[in-house]
Amino acid sequence: MRVWYDACTGKHVRYGTTIARKLRSLGHEVILTTRRHPDTLALASLLKEDFVAIGRYSSASLFSKLKESTKRTSKLAEFFKNNLPDVAISHQSVELCRVAFGLAIPIILTADTPHADAVNRLTIPLSKALVVSEAIPKRLFACYGKPKIYQFKGVDEVAWIKGFSPTKDFNFERPLIVVRQLETRASYALEKEDVTEKAAKKLAKLGNVLFISRYGKQKINGVITLEKFVDTASLVASADLVVSAGGTISREAALQGTPSIVISEFGKTYVNEYLAKKGFPLFMANASDVISIAKRYIGKRFDVQKKLSSLEDPVDIIVKVISENFNKSC
Question: Rounded to whole angstroms, how far apart are CA atoms 69 and 168?
Fold first, then answer.
């Protein structure tokens, strides 16, 4: 069976790599595509996976986003026109969904951001199956279309954190506080203030702050700014505290026992609250509460191995979906 996975971000590269390795072990062919993005190709190289780079990411304006997405869609269609995959999988890649739907290729999606209305509108209605955490009520995705929804007992990040071993030791001065910049140019965050930059400045009083910038050079007094790719899953494993406004890096940290704070910018974040309720060190906070929570947990380590082992790997569910719906030999 021929499977196509398209990765638009670093998170997708990790997810796609894990899915591809599982499917290959079952005898399937997997084609991995991505776009030129600050994280994608560097992470693919680190993971020693061969992703075909088609198109690029642009965050300059809504017009540039639309233009690059349209160009990429056309290039992907050309890439597959003479040798179609049997099924397409992605974490809501808009271009994959348009191409696969247009070429009558069944689509399996993963998703964890019900607040990302634009992406949900452009992808979910075209899919055959949706694999999501049980943390998220089905109704929040069902309202976009009628794919069959499969839920699993865990979060997406379990797929690559279970069995994960850090690839690098980091020698930053301690206590090390990692702050991931809010994705202010994402469609769901265009009107949001960058609360992560403000938090980084305040947290500098508590330790050595490493600010992971999403958009190139950024000078913040008293803070180290990382502008190039870094293996965040390994970095947060050795950090004393992680702070973000999204979730992926915070969930990667909490699943490895590193205390993590998510600044609540998008209302209720179901997957974050799910992990917190299960006892992982992930704490939701208003911007004004970050310092007090940081003081309480910085430097503490949590033994989460039993909790992690009890969570379900979504890749197993994806394999099951393929087996039950698209390939009886899987």
Answer: 34
